[in-house]
Design brief:
198 residues; mainly alpha
Amino acid sequence: MEGDRKIWEDFKCDADYALSDIYGKNIDFLFIYGKKFTKDESLILDTIQDIFYDLIRNRNNLGSTDNIRLYLLKTFRRRILRTFEKNRKLFWLEPTSLHAEPEITFSVEEKIIQDEESAQRIRSLKQAMKTLNARQREVLYYKFTCGFDYDEICEIMSISYDSARQLVSRSIKKLKQKLTPTSFIFLFVRLKEIDKGK
């Protein structure tokens, strides 16, 4: 994205407007994304603050990017997973005591309620999403809610291109088995709208 490339380069050159632009366009998105990992809002806000602090401190040494949101999302994911791992070691917690994967839920039922859809459809969609594991929900979130392509998903999740495609394909296939054709189409329309303020 040409706009992102220019803003990023301006930010690296100490243009104040660029920092405001990057922060304003991404703070809410990062906070919502953080809630998919943890309910601890303080941890989410601290992580976001640390990311922007490091960006400002190291702005002259940053590489280039043409997708600022992808850059921030990767940085957030890496940093919060590192925090979970550090806390697990510090407090001798079992690996299962902390989420190693984001809990992608989409809040589908809330969006549908706002649109006054039937209670039966809400239950169907909710049940269908519960049949997916954490990785499947995560990859669908990146693909349909964030609109990332497979190369970007590979970067975020540290998986191969083929693995990303297979994960999306298997997740969709599983949902198709659980939903009527109408509900299936409706679900993906809603997934694209979630977290975009529609």
